[in-house]
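Sat 14:20. Reprocessing the chain from the morning session after the first attempt stalled halfway. Input below, unchanged.
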Amino acid sequence: MLQEEKEWVQIVSERTKERVLDVMIQRAVITGSTKIQVTYDDLAKLSGLSKGAIFKAVKALEAESKIKKLPSRARRIPNVYEIYTNVEIPEPAIAETVELPEYLEMTRTLKTKLRRLEQENLELKQILFPDIRKSPDIISRSQITDDTVMLVFKVPKISDFDSF
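Finished this time. Tokens:
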């Protein structure tokens, strides 16, 4: 039976095995581990292959000792595979460390800027729309440059803007 299974596995093309292994390696890079948990359905969607081709490719990759299916506890849990091929998993990016006093000062500065901007916006809204109940709604907001924002307002047909 073992010899029969090996002959059947040899039917899989090298390209199919490469595609399945590439998907597994991509998953390993994303998760940061050579042990990945994936279903045949996921492999089929990500590789663009049929589930039958995936099944054959997984068996072939196991026979070539490029991956190993780890025992699972239940049928409904996706299979866990360990990849034995050389996979370079990048180290996660390390965030810049900031001392607490420096962080608190940055936070205070940002909050002060935010309050100043909110006050400026309120003042501009009061200049444009003295009767705050008639102020238009903002429909869209687009960042044009770092310091320029374009706002599109919904203005009623009869308004003080007709005089402009």
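The two ends are 88 Å apart (CA to CA).
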